[in-house]
Structures are given as structure tokens and as C-alpha cells.
Amino acid sequence: MVVISDIIVQGVQMLLVLLLAPLLTGFVRKIKARLVRRQGASMFQPYRDLLRLLRKEVVLADNASWLFRVTPYVTFAAIWVAAALVPTFATGLPFNWTADLIAIVALLGSARFFLALAGMDVGTSFGGIGSSREVMIAALAEPAMLLIVFCMALVAGSTQLSTVANFLASSYVGLRVSLGMALIALIMVALAENARIPVDNPATHLELTMVHEAMVLEYSGRHLAMIEFGTFLKLLLYISLIACVFLPWKIALFGTGPLAYAIGAGAYIVKLAVAGFLLALFETATAKMRVFRIPQFLGAALMLGLLGTLLLFVSRSF
Amino acid sequence: MAPVVLQMSCVAGLLGGAGLAIFLSRARSATAIVYSLTLAVSLLAFFGSIRSLLGGDISDLTLPIGLPWLGAHFRTDALASFFLVVVNLGGASASLYGLGYGQHEPAPHRVLPFLPAFLAGMNLVVLADDAFSYLLCWEFMSLASWALVMAHHREPGNAKAGYVYLVMASFGTLALLLAFGLLAGPAGDYGFAAIRSAQHTPYAATLVLILMLLGAGSKAGLVPLHVWLPLAHPAAPSHVSALMSGVMTKVAIYGFIRVIFDLLGQPTWWAGVVVLILGGITAVMGILYAMMETDLKRLLAYSTIENIGVIFASLGLALAFQANGLKLAAALAFTAALFHVLNHSLFKSLLFFGAGAVLTATGERDMEKLGGLIHRMPQTSFAVLVGCVAISALPPFNGFVSEWLMFQAVLQSPELPQWALKIAVPAVGALLALAAALAAACFVKAYGVTFLGRSRGTAAETAHEVDRYSLVAMFILAALCLLAGILPGLVIDALSPITTAILGGRMPIQANEPWLSIVPIAESRSSYNGLLVMVFITISASLAVFFIHRFASHALRRAPAWGCGFSDSTPAAQYSAGSFAQPIRRVFGTMLFHARDHVEMPAPGDTRPARLRIELHDLVWEGMYAPIAGAVGYSADWLNRLQFLTIRQYLSLVFATLVTLLLVLAIWS
What is the per-residue pLDDT across A22-38, written as a single tens digit (0 to 9) for each? Predict the structure, then answer.
């Protein structure tokens, strides 16, 4: 019975991230529109977009290969699995130990690897430019991410997200300079990984400065729906990650019963809303930077991560 | 039969095969006979070494050859057995591949006798149990591989590759010779058992470490001793390239481990710092070189340098932990290194086989002339895709597992007491993460430009799928990459006798973990389950496919590529390897390679095309090797005068030398 209820909780979590992801993106878009005094589309517009894309036919480039058609499903699956392994409203879910934070980052890397290949598949300049810039950003973001993982692992003694969240939620950790640095670095990496302003602009089309959108330019119909859904999920994943590590407030500990789970779920939705609002605020307030400024941006994230780690070496209490 | 006798019989079989090949080499069926023979012998040796690794047998054998008072000692223990597994797995797959690939060989008599000899040489180095046999076998291996590099000696560049290889190999052997001389001490007992039991002064140990880094490091490809590797490995026929990159570099690593971990005894902590930092720099430099490269086989050779860097960094970690008595962490880092040795031999062989298949099908190694091969060579391109994913350290394949273990070892660094290590380990960890991310970028480039997109030339347009032997060899390696990725616990457990023997510690038994997950230290710290990750991905991808096909539109229309309404008229306008590397060249290469882009823009009205020229400098070659080569040339020219002296001048030279030497002797005493 325990196993069954565990699996049910895990299944609820997998469905929850799937259901909430488009809403989060819709919410961010709505807030951004309101901040510049536009009416904006409904918060539920991303669901409608997905349904519309699913109903449309796929227009496939003449020389697209099987890899191009498989990639949307592979990337979606990899991101979904990664998102399901991040604790959202409860820690200690039955499959949390399948992969630790390093493996979750690598799963996202798999998704990106295939997307970048798909960008090269049709053989247009747009796809190539998107892929080459995406891998450059990834090459800079990954070392920064590893140092952030380092920092957390030094504090919590584990790279297992559930354990980290449990540790930070239950015992009194207090304010730590190093964790603050890791948080800033993680936010910077998350902005880069999710192709948000100031690294990339999710709303542009047909500009030479775009990265992610250029890479998936040739996709249409149900394939595009899967890729868009993957993008929504990735944003939710990073916000969940930040929330579970740095803001484990009211997160349900494993096996504390349905009421705790319900409170945890409510708190989780509040956290998502706050994070979405802050993201929209930040994106409205800043401008996109030039492509070759990104190395400096991510280099700063790397330095913050390294500094946080070294501070922890000086003293565990920083 | 004792394992060492079995292995030596296999070596004898290989040497016999080499002899047979000399007689047969002009015959038409020679290729099939020789490769079948090496395949059978390698498989026998492979299964024999697996048995002795799992069984934990230690056996030795002394042959009455070599130095008269010493004899030739050979021995198999856990470490040797593991490297024999790697060598013979590589040998077997290369032989299988050679059955098909060898049919296209223009000069089989230049390859067939040397390939079995090369395999025998690599086996012998691992088996050798005294310094004299070790050096002799090492030289035999080097010379056999040199002959294979020179197989196509008339192709431009290959003669230079052979020359540079010969110089560097001699230099490496000189360093090894001095290292063993120091280890044997003034008494001069060259048996490994005697060296192991002797006490080594810290001064001698330091010198031995430096000499081993020079000797084994130059063969493995440590930066800055790597210069011969990207010249020599691609020059050989592709299955030999696979052996040189996938296996021979590992034999060099075996030598390093044998001397530094086994013979030298307890390491000092700063040895760990040196090896760790060298490894980190090698990893990043190797993959950056690969990123700049447009020749497919040279790219793979540079990527080998990166992986060697990763392995050396793990070994450095193991040294640092071992020096501080942290047995569990040392075992973890050492296991990561050995696991990566196995992984790299699998996927690098696979990728070189793929490059060989491309070469057979198109006659091209330059990626800028390829493209679109996924349509012409579907099976090859699938196998190579697996290799690319595995080498990019992406789950659920094997490359990820060894990198993951290494990062887990890096996370143990707070337990180290020395400040230098505390700071160096996270920094090198970041370098290794950078190398892993750049490797993914590099293989997106290699695969995307070679196999995807539109064909950039007629050779790529008219390519055909390669023969069955080559395909089977590639698919077996691809399957092994996946298997090692989803069942890493089995590999880790198989490696534990080595860590027990060398370090005196081991990782927890993985077979006891539920669901076949791997747990390096404790479950609360970290765990990973490749099998479940793969099952989850498969299930969620199938679910997605099911729902899409059940509920979404099935309509599909083929049309010209969209490209924002502007379709590039010619395939030459698509993204090339050079343009794909541009962002990374600009970020990293401006400093490390002095990279500059020169645009020659014709004046308005001029109908000449605009041209982009990329300027890249190999600073290691220009700053280190070119001055040395210049100095050697200059002094040789200068000394040349000595050839044209009169008899009186020669006699006075002899007299002066004699007097000087006697004076030196007199003052010395």
C-alpha cells in the first residue's frame, strides 16, 4: 500500500508540473503586458496555443531527417523527467533518488544536445546560428551551475535535492553569505538556460540576435507544440529548483499525510506566482544584452559560485 | 591454465599472425585471414582477462629471455587484467571492423603485418613485470604503431606526422628509462616486485613523478606534450586510429598508474595537485582545439586529449585523497578514472570507426565538404549518434556515469586538509564541467556538420552505406556504451579488486543497492540510477507520442525549408564547422589561440566575393616546439663544420677532450 501511495504522489507531481507549466508562462506574459500597460492575452493563452498547434498540420522541410522528427519527443521527455525529479510540494518522493542535481542538469543537457542537432538538420543559416549560440551559452552556464551545486552540497552535505530541501527546511540554517551568492548565481544561470531577458528574448521572432527561437525556427504543428511545452516545463523546473532549495517554506516532508501535501501544494503555487511576478518585473526593467556580453554575465555567475564555495571552505558558518 | 600463460599464448598467437601476414600480405585473402585470426585471439584474450579480473587471480611467469641475470617477468593482477580487457576489447572490435574496412585498403602489405604486432605490443606492456621488459615492449608498441602511422606515407602531412611521432616517442621512452633507473636505485634490481618493496627517497619520488608525467604523459597526450597526437592518430588507417586513440593512450595511463600508485608507494599530497591541474588544463585545451578543428579525424584525436585530461584529473584527485588517508574518496576517484578509461575506449573506437566509414563512403575527412550523410548512411549515422551522445557525457549513456562519479569525488574535497587542494579541486571541477559542456558543443558540431544538413559536395551526395562487418563492429560498441551507462554498478563492482589492491580501500558494493542504482558514498549524499532514468525517458516519450498520435492532427506536408522566407540557394550557404565554432572561438580563442577573423570586403561595384579568413595560432607549437626545433637545426648547422676539419685538428680535438676528461676526474675526486 505504501508503495502504491508513493507512486500516486509521484504521479500527482508529474501531472502537476505538466498542468502548471503553461499557466506559469501565461502568468508571466500577462504580468509583463500589464506592466507596460497593455491588456495582454489571457493567462490561459498558452494552453490554447498548444491546442491550436496540435490541431495544425506539420510542414516539414524537404530534407529533414528522422532525427528532426524524433527530437521534439526526446527533448520533451528528458525535460519532463528532469522536472518530475525536482521536489515541488513534497520532498522524499519515491523516485527522487533516481538522479541527483548533477544528473538533472545533465538531463537538461541531453534535451539541449538534441535540439541543437535538430537546428542543424535542415541546413539553414538560422538553425545553425541558433544552435551554435545555444551551445556557447550552455558551455558557459554549466561550469557555473556545477559550482552552485558545489556550494549547496557543502552546506547540506548532499547533491540529492530531496535531502538538500529537507536539510534547509527542517534545521535552522539561517542567513548565509555563500548561499546568497549561490542564489544570485543560480538566478543568472536560470535566466540564461531559459532564454530569458537579458540573455535571450523569448518574445522576439525574426531577429538576428535571437538564439533559442532561431534554433527551433523550422518546427511547426505538433512538433512545435512539444518543444514549446518543453520550454514551459523548463521554466517551471528552474523556479521549482530555486524554490525547493532556497525557499523550502511549507514544503511537505515525506510521509506527513494528505493535509501537509495540500498545504505544500498551496505554498508551491504561491511561490510560483511570486517568482513569476519577479521574473516579469525583472524582464520589463532590463534590456537584452549583446550576444558577446553574455560570457561576462555568465562569468559573473561562475565567479559568484566559486566565491561562495571558497567562503564555505574558510568557514562552514558563512 | 594460469591467466598469464593464456595471455602470453595469445600474444604469441598475435606475433605469429604478424609473421604470417608478412608471407601472405600480397595474397588476396590476406586481409580476411589476418583479421579473423586477430579477432579470434583478441576475443580469447578478452574473455580470459575478464575471468582473471572477476576471479581475482594473480599469476606470474618468468621467461629465460632478456637480461641474463633477470629474465623476462610477466604477471597478471587485477590492474593488468582490467587493462587487458580494454586492450583486447579494442583489438577485437578493430579486427572485426578491419574485416570490412581492410578491403578498401590500398596498401594492405603496409598494414597487415604491423597490426597484430601492435596489438601484441600493447598486451605485452600491460603484462610486463620488470623494467627491462616493460621498456622493450613499450618501444615495440611505439615502433609498430609508428609503422602503421606511416602506412600511407605518400599522403601529404603523414611523413611529418611520423617524424614528430618518432621524436616524441623517443623522448618519452628516454623519460621512462630514467624513471625506471631511479626506481631501481644503485643496486639495479629491475623487477617490479623489488621496486615495490624498496624505499624511495622523497627526492627520487619527485623526479620519478616528473619523469612519468613526461614519459607516460607524452604517449597519452598531456598538454603540452600532445603535439604529435593529432598529427599521428588521424594519419593511420581508421581502425588503427581507433586503437591508438582508444587503447594505446590507455596503455600509457596504465604505465602511469603502475608506477605512481603501485610501485612508488604512498604518494605526497602535492603530487595530486600537479596531476590534477595538468589534467584540468589538458581537458579544456584538448576540447578547445577540437572545437576549432574541421578535419573529422583530427577533431576526434583532439577530443582524445580532452578525455585523457579528465582521466588524469581523476587520478590526481585519487592521489590527493590517498596521500591524506581518505581511502573511500580515493577509491571513488580512482574508480571514476578507470571507468572513464573503459568508456573512452568504447566510444572513441566507435567514433573513429564512424569516421572511417565516412572516409570509405566519401573519401573525405574534411567536414566542410560533407553533410547530409544521415540520409545516405542511416545505420552508420545512428551508431555515431550514440557515440556522440555518450562522449558528450549525457545520461543515460556511459560517459555521464564516469563524469558523475568524478564530480562526486570532487565534492569530497572539503575533507582534504591542505589549502592548496581545497582551492584547486573546486577550480579544476569547474574546468572539467567546462570541458564536458564544450565536448557536447564540439560533438553537436561534428555530428551536425558531417551527418545533418544538406550535402556540401558530390562526394557526400553519392555516398553509400558501408559493409556489414563495419556496421556490426559499430553497433556492438554502441550497445556496450548504453549497457555500461544503464548498469554502471556491475562495472564499479568489477573494478573494486583493483582499488582494493592498489589503494587498500573500495567503494560500497553496488550489487546490493535496490533497483541497480549506484551509490558512491551513502544514499543520503548522492545516488544515480541510469536504468530508471532510461526507463523514465522511454515511458514519458512513449506517453507523449501516444497522446500526440491519439489526439493531435496527423497531417504532414513536405515543403521547402522556411528559413524566415529566405531559402539559401546553395548548400555552401548553410552553417559550416568554422561558423559553428565562431562564438566559442571568439569567447575562448581570442586569448588562447590568438584567433582573429579577417573580412576582405570588396569595394562597392567590385564583383569579387567577400572573403572571411580565420587566423589561428597553436601557441604551444609556436612558443615551445618551434623554438626548440629552430635551436636544434641551428646547432646542427653549426656543428656541421666539425665534419670538414683536417687530420691535425681532429687529433688536437681528441687530445683536448682526453685532457679535459682527466682533469674533470682529478677535480671530482
Answer: 999 999 999 999 999 99
pLDDT over 60 at A207, yes or no: no
Q: Given pLDDT bands bounded at 50, 70 and 90, which one contains residue A177?
A: confident
Give percent helix, percent strand, percent coil of chain B, each to the nearest 5. Answer: 75, 5, 20
Span A40-94, pLDDT tens digits: 999 999 999 999 999 999 999 988 999 999 999 999 999 999 998 888 888 777 7
Chain B hits for A297, CB-CB cut-off 8 Å, are: none
Query: How far does A210 lie from chain B, in Å, by closest CA?
Result: 13
Which of A77, A143, A226 is nearest residue B434 as measured by Cβ atoms?
A143
Contact pairs from chain A to chain B, CB under 8 Å: 280
CA atoms B59, B63, B66, B71: torsion sign: positive
Confidence category of residue B107, pLDDT binned at 50, 70, 90: confident
How far from the centroid of its chain's Cα atoms is residue B592's Cα?
23
Contact residues on chain A for B592, CB-CB shorter than 8 A: none
* Residue ranges of domains in chain B: 1-194, 619-668
Q: What's the predicted TM-score (pTM) here?
A: 0.95
Interface of A with B in 71-110 (CB under 8 A): 73-74, 76-78, 80-81, 84, 95, 97-100, 102-103, 106-107, 109-110
A255: which DSSP letter? T
Q: Give the ipTM of the model, two decimals please.
A: 0.95
B533 to A127: CB separation less than 8 angstroms, yes or no: no
Beta-carbon contacts of A244 under 8 Å, excluding residues fewer than 6 positions away, are A86, A87, A88, A91, A161, A164, A165, A251
Q: What is the mean pLDDT of chain B?
A: 92
Kindly identify which residue of chain B lies nearest to residue A296, measuring between CA atoms.
B587
Chain B residues touching A57 at Cβ < 8 A: 553, 555-557
Q: Does A300 touch chain B (CB under 8 A)?
A: no
In degrees and rounded to multiples of 5, residue B528 shows phi and psi of -145, 140
**Which residues does chain A have within 8 Å of residue B567's beta carbon, measured at their own beta carbons?**
124
Model pLDDT, residue B273:
94
**DSSP codes, B585-643:** IIIIIHHHT--EEEEEPPPTT--SPPEEEEE---HHIIIIIHHHHHHHHHHHHHHGGGG
Could you give the CA distance from residue B374 to residue B363 in angstroms, rounded to a whole number? Answer: 16
